[in-house]
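Because showing beats explaining, we let one protein speak, sequence and backbone structure tokens together, and leave readers to judge.
___
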Amino acid sequence: MRYRIPLFLVLASILIVACTDLATLRSSQPIAPVRDYETILVGNLEANYVGDENCLAKCHDHDKIYSDFKRSIHGDQISEETGLPLVNCESCHGPGSMAVEHLTDQKKCASETLLQINEFPSQAQSMLCLRCHSAASTPNLTSWNSSVHALNDVSCFDCHKLHMGPQQKIDRHDQEEFCTGCHTQVKIEFAQFSHHPVPEHKMACTDCHDPHLSTNQNNLKGVTSKALCTRCHMEYQGPFVYEHADVTEECTNCHRPHGSPNDPLLEVSQPFLCMQCHAGHQGSRSPQATLDNSPMKQAFYSRCTDCHSAIHGTDIPSVHGRGTFISR
């Protein structure tokens, strides 16, 4: 004899299982004990802060590193109240008393008692920086953990070198080579015939993109591509009385932002770019019309901008009125 399970029992079972799964998802699931987080943030909890001078008194291996750091924007900040540096070695490496307590001329410091920053995952490395660079000091880092770089295991130390002297961020002259180390497709685009002058170092990646985070697509510094592009190309900003509807919002409808084989940065060469939306002009309908004056033949040997020069917008009406096409 075959038994049939009522439908309401099946639905009730699914609902119970779903509620159980939701309760599991909503419950706190720490990836490590709280004490481990404390250790990442402040270092060895059993050690004390002793200051840079005591750390380096008997160890000269890091003299150059310390000298470069003191000349940096971090090392140059001194508290007016205490006269002590606001950022020093122990700010990142943790308290160093245990590292130097048994230090002699023949014995190196116990560096294993310090924070092993190079062994940290990228998110933990960035967390060291975010302790200070929070919403108050660097607002564009407030959502770093959800940025595309953080989600792809890029840490602050990949771009910022704190031990290399005053320059602790990538120089504008080196940005193109540095960024295209990961963004290889962009490097190929910049090698095209028509491109923005980033390889020539007249522009930098950060002129258009915010590497830390932007609420805009592709980390752009503008709400739309037009809002960003018209910071330089102001003649196309408008508003115009007669607008080209396709370019009122997005320049990327027609242009490639990094590079293109078509000048100027066009997605497709003329007239075929325009013909994706606009039909070609009609040729002569006289009996004497030949292949030489057919619309397709004319299209191969002409550019739309030879006649339609104000393709981004204009305040001057056309001869036949806006949007009017006259058949011959």
Summary: The chain is about 30% helix and 0% strand.
